[in-house]
Amino acid sequence: MSGFASQFVVAFMVTVGLALVAGSLGTAFGLFLAISKGGAAPRFMSVVTAYTTVVRGVPELLIILLIYFGGTTLASKVAGRYVEVNAFTAGVIALSVVFSGYATEVFRGAIAAVPAGQTEAAKSLGLNAWQRWMFIIGPQMLRLALPAYGNLWISLFKDTALVSIVGLTDIMRVAYVGAGSMRAPLSFYLAASALYLSLTTVTLLSIRLAERRYPAFGR
Amino acid sequence: MRIPLSIAISLAALMSSAPVQASGERAISIATEGASPPWDGTDANGELYGYDVDVGRELCNRMKLKCSFVAQDWDGIIPALLVGKYDVIMSGMAITEKRKQQIAFSIPYAAGFNQFVVRKELGLDAGDTKQKVNLSTIGDKEKAAIERVRSTLSGKAIGVLRSSNSEAVVKALLGDVVTIRSYDSLDNLKLDLGAGRVDGGLADYFTWRDFLETPAGSIAVFLGPELNGGLWGPGVGAGMRKDDAELLAKFNTAIDAATKDGTIKALSLKWFKTDISPGQPK
Amino acid sequence: MNFGLMLDAIVVLPSGIGLTLTLTVLSLMAGFLLSVPLAFIRAFARPGLSLAVLAYTYVFRGTPMLVQLFLLYYGLGQIEAVRASVFWMILRDPFWCALLTFSLNSAAHTTEILCRGLQSVPKGLIEAAAALGLKRLQIARLVTFPIAFRISLPAYGNEVVGMIKGSSLASTVTLLEITGMARQMVSATFAPYEIFIVAGAIYLALTSIAVKATQFLERRLSTDRNPAPRRRARFRPALPHQEITPPVP
Q1: Contact C192/B79, CB-based, under 8 Å?
Q2: Which of A12, A53, A197, B94 has the most CB atoms at less than 10 Å from its CB?
Q3: Which residues of B touch C92 (CB under 8 A)?
Q4: What are the pLDDT digits (tens) for C84-132?
Q5: Cβ <8 Å between B35 and A165
Q6: How far apart are CA A134 and CA B175, in angstroms?
Q7: Alpha-carbon distance A11 to A172, whole Å?
Q8: pLDDT value at A34 more than 80
Q9: What is the number of structural domains in chain C?
Q10: Which chain A positions have a beta carbon within 8 Å of C197's beta carbon?
């Protein structure tokens, strides 16, 4: 068990790292899509809608398998030489794709919920588009999006477990290998549950803290 | 707050794990399942061990190649080789015609065989467990033995490793009389055998033998003859991509030499307590 | 890309749809039935009871369903007492194990969804119902729950989609639903790409139907001021139409 304890520590770091990288990339991409969906041409909007529909409609497990196996082939073809897409990279790409799909919808909803009068008032004050986003719509939108956005992070931490299926040594993988080779599935999966629960608890508390610190206006 | 730094380090390590090609000496990575001891297993430190790993290291020394081992689940082990995740499979993989359509095999570095196990409490008639049946050359005696297994196991749930030859054999020989349950790993099949979710299983003999010697495995016994040939092919070989002919030639030379000077036999005795080194290649 | 293989997959994989749907529908139903009383307890009962329900939903929503499934399937199977008990009849079978995990998971999610719905029913409505002389059970059945359900519907739609996708985990405990069939096919053909794309498309079709169904139900149960046109057509107004007798200025 002691050998597995140190393995769990490393695996914990891998899970946290995977989630943080995927979540940040997914947030950036989701914000970009949500903002451009607001003012873009109808054709671009329908592409974004198709993207979010597909990403949210296909099991995460399949997306990870597709990117792990298909990613190397595709990347190598594009680059013209062999490009390795390892389990971690495949996991990051797959999870950020999933995350961005949901984040786009969350941010789009929040943008729509910012009263139109705010934009008009900002315009009449002479703020340009960039300033309007930075100082008026952005902050209000983020506050409105916070609860749903927090849930996305919780789902993300749970989804990282699926990357173990393509061989990334994360919490789930260590539990899986340990449960099999030590024939003690109960203790190993309980340990994994506790680790995941601690991660989601920390996420939840941070979100609550942020919500209290930055409450949405008018609530 | 020290976490970000360690994350950065582990990320850097993970991102840069792409195989580095030094000029002149080629570094190769070898995949093994790591869940079928004594062929290949994973110890409490996450290190891979077993016959496959030892033979692989020995061959790499002879070929003067830098080798690293990676673990890969069985049902993705060939697809991942094909897309280039690693260069070689050494995982107790039998050389079969079907696999040969996708990948190239070295000459055999072991000649394994397979057997059914069943839960003791079922009280089934085990028959002659020392009889050897080669599925490529079936005579009347072999037919009778297979027929006996068929009638004994009729109506039972039999576990196999997903995408293994055993799965194909059970499908072909018993598919109409048993329920087949396919597992991600043999370790999980053993767990379910212990829990009684399956009545028996078909897999490599040595994997079972090690298992039956443990307390958890004391609930099961061998049943029916030792099986080889047929879908299992001529033995266990190292798998490589078909366009990697140079590496294949090196492996063949190294395996041939290691077989002739008795190294393979010694490793076989170390892990299997019996000599299953292949006969001299034809 | 091998299109022949994709065609094979299109022929073979739909045979897994039955099991995927069975698992999804049954666990959603079981989860819903379990979550209705739990949601009421969570929303209105004494703090002690409410916290107990919260503990359950918290653990199930805070851990990956894959871990829960393995814990229930491989973990509980290790305990002698469990194997000797009557529950083993159910836990012995991977189908029931998966169904139990999915149901408990879905119940945890649905409880929280419905609880939020129940809490956002305006207090005045409940007081009005009480003033009309309705008993507590009647209020819950006729007033609180229908309104809460309508409020929760969009969130519940997400839960339905999540369950369809989550059922793919059943493939890890030897069940042959769509993903299980796909992995079986991949292991025989060594062609993950083609087959997983077809599997993904099938899931997309299923989840799209679920989304459309939820949207239809939302419109159907809508309490908006502008009712859908078909309602107007359904029954003839007993009184002359507004256009015919314009209000007196």
Answers
A1: yes
A2: B94
A3: 195-197
A4: 888 888 888 899 999 999 999 999 999 999 999 999 999 999 999 999 9
A5: no
A6: 66
A7: 8
A8: yes
A9: 1
A10: 66
